[in-house]
Amino acid sequence: MNSVWLADHTWQEVEEYITSKHSIIVPVGATEQHGPAGPLGVDTYVAMGLAEDAARATGLLVAPPVWLGDSFHHSAFPGTIWLKSSTMIAVITDIAHSLAEAGFTRQIYVNGHKGSNLPSLTLALREVHEYQHPEALFAIADPLHLGRAVAGEIKQAAEHHGGALELSQVMYRYPNKVREDKLTDASVDLEAIGGGYIASDLFGQGSIVEISWNSREERAFSPSGSISSSHTASVDLGKRFHEAMVGELCKFIQWFESYTGPLGVVSEDEI
Amino acid sequence: MNSVWLADHTWQEVEEYITSKHSIIVPVGATEQHGPAGPLGVDTYVAMGLAEDAARATGLLVAPPVWLGDSFHHSAFPGTIWLKSSTMIAVITDIAHSLAEAGFTRQIYVNGHKGSNLPSLTLALREVHEYQHPEALFAIADPLHLGRAVAGEIKQAAEHHGGALELSQVMYRYPNKVREDKLTDASVDLEAIGGGYIASDLFGQGSIVEISWNSREERAFSPSGSISSSHTASVDLGKRFHEAMVGELCKFIQWFESYTGPLGVVSEDEI
Amino acid sequence: MNSVWLADHTWQEVEEYITSKHSIIVPVGATEQHGPAGPLGVDTYVAMGLAEDAARATGLLVAPPVWLGDSFHHSAFPGTIWLKSSTMIAVITDIAHSLAEAGFTRQIYVNGHKGSNLPSLTLALREVHEYQHPEALFAIADPLHLGRAVAGEIKQAAEHHGGALELSQVMYRYPNKVREDKLTDASVDLEAIGGGYIASDLFGQGSIVEISWNSREERAFSPSGSISSSHTASVDLGKRFHEAMVGELCKFIQWFESYTGPLGVVSEDEI
Amino acid sequence: MNSVWLADHTWQEVEEYITSKHSIIVPVGATEQHGPAGPLGVDTYVAMGLAEDAARATGLLVAPPVWLGDSFHHSAFPGTIWLKSSTMIAVITDIAHSLAEAGFTRQIYVNGHKGSNLPSLTLALREVHEYQHPEALFAIADPLHLGRAVAGEIKQAAEHHGGALELSQVMYRYPNKVREDKLTDASVDLEAIGGGYIASDLFGQGSIVEISWNSREERAFSPSGSISSSHTASVDLGKRFHEAMVGELCKFIQWFESYTGPLGVVSEDEI
Amino acid sequence: MNSVWLADHTWQEVEEYITSKHSIIVPVGATEQHGPAGPLGVDTYVAMGLAEDAARATGLLVAPPVWLGDSFHHSAFPGTIWLKSSTMIAVITDIAHSLAEAGFTRQIYVNGHKGSNLPSLTLALREVHEYQHPEALFAIADPLHLGRAVAGEIKQAAEHHGGALELSQVMYRYPNKVREDKLTDASVDLEAIGGGYIASDLFGQGSIVEISWNSREERAFSPSGSISSSHTASVDLGKRFHEAMVGELCKFIQWFESYTGPLGVVSEDEI
Amino acid sequence: MNSVWLADHTWQEVEEYITSKHSIIVPVGATEQHGPAGPLGVDTYVAMGLAEDAARATGLLVAPPVWLGDSFHHSAFPGTIWLKSSTMIAVITDIAHSLAEAGFTRQIYVNGHKGSNLPSLTLALREVHEYQHPEALFAIADPLHLGRAVAGEIKQAAEHHGGALELSQVMYRYPNKVREDKLTDASVDLEAIGGGYIASDLFGQGSIVEISWNSREERAFSPSGSISSSHTASVDLGKRFHEAMVGELCKFIQWFESYTGPLGVVSEDEI
């Protein structure tokens, strides 16, 4: 069986795997509107694609994808499914605990939903490491950070929700899922809406304050759901974006898998 | 786009869909040990296969699969990932609410994890219907009940966790996922363990009391994780089991989609 | 003191009891409408009657009755008192934990509220056995299963909420509580309401799907609250139904009290 | 039907009742050790006796008793069953809400468990009145306050847990439940244990600080569980104590039932 | 550094402190309306003043003040900030646990918010002592009890929310915070509102029942927010009230700091 | 009364204030170790100082400080007091709701605890804006972002926990609170500990992944608690850092106070 997916393996194969490896990748996405061209699953496909390709390159397993996340700000667009933050924290906590119990002491959460999921992921994993599993380490990797360098090189416009980079990545990695005839130059002038205090480019320097909007506001200021223009999306752009991030992720994973401390080193009586 | 999966559609396509349809199918499974031959994803594959085929036949959409469930009694076998019951209830509650907000007033939860997930599904959906969405109806379909008639005809032995019927179904519907060389006649004499008060056959009449076991007990009494023998599993058996259940499910869905009350009919001021 | 009720004993008598016995019976009911003839306490009286008679026959103690349960679907009828499911799970968890701490390693929950309470009871007791008390075993007994055989022999019509069997049982065991002049042939054609997918007979084979109704729907389709006809109820019918179930329960309890494993056998360091 | 117990009535009788009356009494007790002579149910019997007699005198209904409360400080004595405080708050919240939904706009909680249950009762009922039912009023009556005057006249010693007054009350109202041959002069010098800062007499002036003990401490300083001596308990003492409190309770209830505001008077749009 | 405030010390100074001392004082107040003359912070200033002066006299540390409490019944007056009871319990639980982990085995909670905060404080601290920290003792001191004797001597009228005693105390201890030109003789006749069953004087004997009001009722019956008259408030009255309470508190603390059991003495394996 | 602190005002003054202003500042800090020189209150003092000075310059009110936050990773150093993340979310939710109910439709949370508190603040405020108060806007300002520009100009070394910038700010704004004789060049090579994947400079570009450490690891790798060197701290450095941030904050607040939408503009029936 050469699937990288944990769910395709038997428990005996997993038992064998953890005799020599410590790591597992957990893809975390969302099911939410991505404008007229992006399917609802964009964020999960991004996470799955990164996880699967990095796993293949490094010989690791991938846990089942988390298809749902902190998406209530998109909830005015039908098809969006959202978890309350407390639910999301509970789900991640249970996954991290289950995997650590099995012996996965290096867990890499690949988040495809960018900033929205990060607070819940951070809170859940910090507390699992403090209270339940000092012997296991938990890393969060996100295109926002993984792709910072390459995005700076290749993006042609501000990149935000439904933008050219994320749609290109899906076009490259999961052909025929983006509606290419619906790619659009519709975008939202977040600087104008937020007096310069809301950043239009997720790969920019960020604002000096954080202001969130809610679902009704989003539907009002972005009737199509596209916050960035996507009409320059292309398979080639997606390939460059995706491969660069997979490369960064693989480098990290190799370091993480072979990491021996001081983090995660606990005295015998703590486990 | 002719995918049945919601996540492959854009929000505008979903908005269009709900102008003429009311139903959506939600596959709910688990990631847990299924003996030496069954991959960890058996229950989710069962739910996905039933959901996808019924959706194709009836023209419906399918929500992203729920890969995790109430599996802690299998937690002594590595690779099993479990949600606490309170987490599971929260996840189902949030999904049902999100979909009802979008206008899906007929929701069919296809559970592949049999009895273990049923209490959480039932509690979540009953309270959503009572307190949040009186206008939406929620049905739970499970192989335990969908397959009762056909199982009686075709099964050759008691069917329990990791048994011939569920492995056959995966062999038929998702080729190459079952380790056919590991099919086994290992089984557990639950009647002996439970003095006749624990049923060995999930399709039998059931016991007069309910007694649950925990993860350590299971690992002790079933070292391989196989509770029923699976050595008679075959693609053909799986096809008969699966198709019969898809047939039952389609009949139900057609009735449900066109159902006009009295359940789910609320006065204007309640919505 | 020859009361079977725990609350009538002193703590020293309980301390003495658990030097030789392991079991306790916990009656769980509800306070909810039972049609024009049934008092609100029917389910609790059923549970108390079964528990008390089985306890007397086997020399066991009975915990105080749980008078409230998952009854919100009856909440449109005044006098019904309901717990949210999360409250119900918390109550059962606390009871099971308290009793196990005292040394009651065999606990039998006798539920008089049939299917409605079962999910909460199951979730609570499964998690207590997994996480808190591997050394204690928890069984759930319910008229739905205890009475399956005898009901098949004696019932004269489909038996559902407020039906002839449960009212007869109260008439026999708690004289003068049923309003015999209000026994009724009012019943609800659940098959018609649910297109054949909702079973009219709780002792029948069940449906292939589970659909729940809510409180407003119930008040609309069953203005009297009687879902099954009760006009054939009689003390004699109640006696046959009750005694048969007490017999089954006693047989089970004797086995359970003397059961020595493998379930519930834990190594010293787990307790 | 002349039972005062709600559970003995049908929903139609309750519907009739609330056309002319507003009040219901809810007895709240505990199941916990009461020394060598007191049965575990003392607190619940006290609450039930007060509730039943006041109901009979005033023509009111009584809800099913709450048999369990905040008793973990007695948990080192077997037979004690305790709810976590969060569970207790949830139970009281659900009861108050259910009864207010039915139209009971005057609810009297008669607590037999004295100070231990009061914080949970207070928190639950305050929030129900603030957030859920401004139209309903909730009163808490407790022997600590109801019996202050009469206790001052009749008690012969400091009265604390398991003392002469509460055991006398049960001896009078529920004959044969107290083990009269086990009445004891064992008591605990709480003043010595707590440097004068823990009061030995629940009917005294109280301390200037509140210090709580836990279950293991109690078992250590009070091996018999009797904190006050009970050897002077008698049926006659119980009668005087009980009847005086019933009298106070009846006077209160008559005022409460006929109370017309300003508390509980809400404008139409708030209900 | 001779600040008594914990937050002004470094962790190394705290580490040194707990080699010789066990106690810490935690001031708990509220931010809520106190009539036309009292600033919103009255209750917190009361708690801080008592804590600081007692700490100075006894050489102890004071934790940061808890500025928010159970104040929803004042929420109809702007500026009031309230915690839900469950939040308040969580906050106190976390503080008590943090401090006990650091080695503070004697914790004195000085509550300035009188009865309103007491149930939450009691529930939180009782459960911390039972389940988390049997080795630490927790005391609650409140002006209601600390000041009972002196209030009886010096008060000139019934003292309730916004009354002369608490405003005097702030006038004395925190000059210029009370609006002396807005002192008022406005008061509420709670006896009339509550038929004699709601006490107008917090230092009186109390009622035989407890009835709570909600925020809208308070705004209606007390348009100024002043429940007691405050026009007799004076610095001198405040000084007498405050100093007497500080004296009582110091006496208690000295006893508590040197207390050696039996409460709080646990065997080695429990810690 | 010219205090900027809400707690120093009466409710009538607040009622007057909100007839002409919409904004309030909420300082949020922590009580946690800050190395040998920093008092436990550093983060709260930073938040209070920024809030107070910005409020004075803009004529706004400041809510009482939140003294406790997400600090468990410092919990191995005594004196640290931490809230669980769920408690922190509840506290912020209750504050935001209380203030919005009073009419504060622009709330600025000034966080002195940098990254650690941000996830909880973000989750709480996002959900309040989505579900409870669409009419109110919530901004989070943090030295990490407010001070990015000025830090780049003035810092002389990597700045992390206990570093020169934050201690300088306290030295300037709250004289005599930093132990200047304990300023230290002790620092931790986080790059070495985390293979280059943990950033040593909070004002740098950040890592491509997020890895958290727990309390025991911190105590092991940083015995003094100082993660950055602080020996270059000075009042002058603090002044420049503080004043620059106050300037940024004031500019933001002026824009925010006068902002008229589209965010926060809701139709009448939503409020």
Overall average residue pLDDT of chain A: 96
How many strand segments of chain A? Answer: 5
Write the element-wise H/E pattern of chain A from the N-terminal end onward.
Answer: HEHEHEHEHHHHEHH
Biggest chain pair interface = A-F, 58 and 58 residues
Features of the shown structure:
globular, homohexamer, alpha/beta, 4-stranded parallel beta sheet, 271 residues, Rossmann fold
Quick structural summary:
6 copies of one chain form a homohexamer. Chain A has helices at 11-17, 42-58, 85-102, 118-132, 143-146, 148-154, 164-173, 190-193, 215-221, 235-257; strands at residues 23-28, 61-62, 106-111, 137-141, 209-211. The first copy, chain A, has 271 residues and is α/β, with parallel strands linked by helices.
Structural features, described:
The structure is a homohexamer of 271-residue chains. Chain A has a domain at 6-158 and 238-265: 3-Layer(aba) Sandwich (Rossmann fold). The first copy, chain A, has ten helices and five strands. The first copy, chain A, has helices spanning 11-17, 42-58, 85-102, 118-132, 143-146, 148-154, 164-173, 190-193, 215-221, 235-257; strands at residues 23-28, 61-62, 106-111, 137-141, 209-211. In chain A, strands 2-1-3-4 form a four-stranded parallel beta sheet, sandwiched between helices. In chain A, strand 1 (23-28), helix 2 (42-58) and strand 2 (61-62) form a beta-alpha-beta unit. The interface between A and F is large, with 58 and 58 residues.
